[in-house]
Amino acid sequence: MELLQVNITICRTRRSMCGRASLTHLESELEERFQATFYTEDIARYNPLPSYNIAPTHVLPVISMDDKKHFLPAAWGWNINSPAPFMINAQIEQINTKKMFAKYLDYHRCIIPMDGYYEWLKKDKQKIPYRIVCTDRSLFGVAGLVKEEKSKSGESELHFVVITRPAEPSIAWLHERMPLILTEEWEQKWLDGEFEEKWMEILSEQMAYNLKVYPVSSLVNSVKNNSTDLISPQSVDNYIQGDLF
Fold first, then answer.
1. Domain residue spans in the chain?
2. The pLDDT of residue 3
3. Average pLDDT over every residue of 80-102
4. How far apart are CA 57 and CA 78, in angstroms?
5. Once rounded to an integer, what is the mean pLDDT over residues 41-49?
6. How far is the C-alpha of 115 from the C-alpha of 122, rounded, in Å?
7. How many CB atoms lie under 10 A from the CB of residue 173?
8. Would you say 128 and 56 are in contact if contact means Cβ atoms under 8 Å apart?
9. Which of 7-21, 65-79, 171-185 has the weakest average pLDDT?
């Protein structure tokens, strides 16, 4: 799957989760954690792994309801080659009432492996990037929806959106939304059976992981940068704002 060049406006409003994440673990670690394997011919199609700066249109390994035992390559974002609005996430509170998403709930759910994501905080006319991770830096599964879309060449390829929820109180000061991180028990439920409205109880359950927030380098502002330097803790006092893209 070719990485597409599109113009994307990230963080349009406070209610939109910013579109940047990380997956710094190796394929073998993903296989052990999620009990799924990579198809050999697919490994070279990711962006690449490990990746410290994942953005919309980048290709990630996902686990879908159609193939629970394998990772499949899917690009982040719906309607890349369509006149319809480009979407990178969907709010869980409205997902079963929004026509764009509701018809995909029963048979097109997926899990997106991550080990962190980024948000920007405006302070003194600067936008300071922060990384949100588990306190033990472990992998976690994020709920998503996946569907097939046609590429410009007419070929079918998978695309996903990240499902979001209200942020946990401990990190809400940074952003009011966050990815819907699943417990391992919920990961299995998310990939099995039809969508049930009572699943909204997931929002009242205890978070699967303890989260940690720390400031990172402005290098993450450019999607062209992808190295371990992006996830090293930085001092806010010494922060110098660069361009977002």
1. 21-238
2. 38
3. 92
4. 9
5. 77
6. 24
7. 10
8. no
9. 7-21
Q: pTM (2 decimals)?
A: 0.88
pLDDT at 202: 81
Separation of alpha carbons 221 and 118, rounded Å: 10
The structure tokens listed for 130 are 């922060």
* Identity at 102, one-letter amino acid code: A
pLDDT of residue 17: 64
Exposure pattern of 136-167 as b/e (b: 16+ CB <10 Å)? eeebbbbbbbbbebeeeeeeebbbbbbbbbeb
Residue numbers annotated as active site: 18, 119
The residue type at 214: Y
CA nearest to 109, candidates 193, 214, 216: 193
Tokens of 108: 């097109």
Tell me how far apart the alpha carbons of residues 174 and 132 are, in angstroms, rounded to a whole number.
10
Across the chain, which distance is largest between two alpha carbons, in Å? 50
**Which of these, 20, 19, 12, 15, lies nearest to 165 by C-alpha position?**
15
56, 245 contact by CB (below 8 A): no
Q: What is the pLDDT of residues 146-193, one digit of tens each?
A: 999 998 888 999 999 999 999 999 999 999 999 999 998 899 999 998
- Cα 39 to Cα 195: distance, rounded to the nearest angstrom: 28
Angle CA 165–207–100, to nearest 5:
25
What is the fold, at CATH topology level, of the domain defined by 21-238? hypothetical protein yedk fold (3.90.1680)
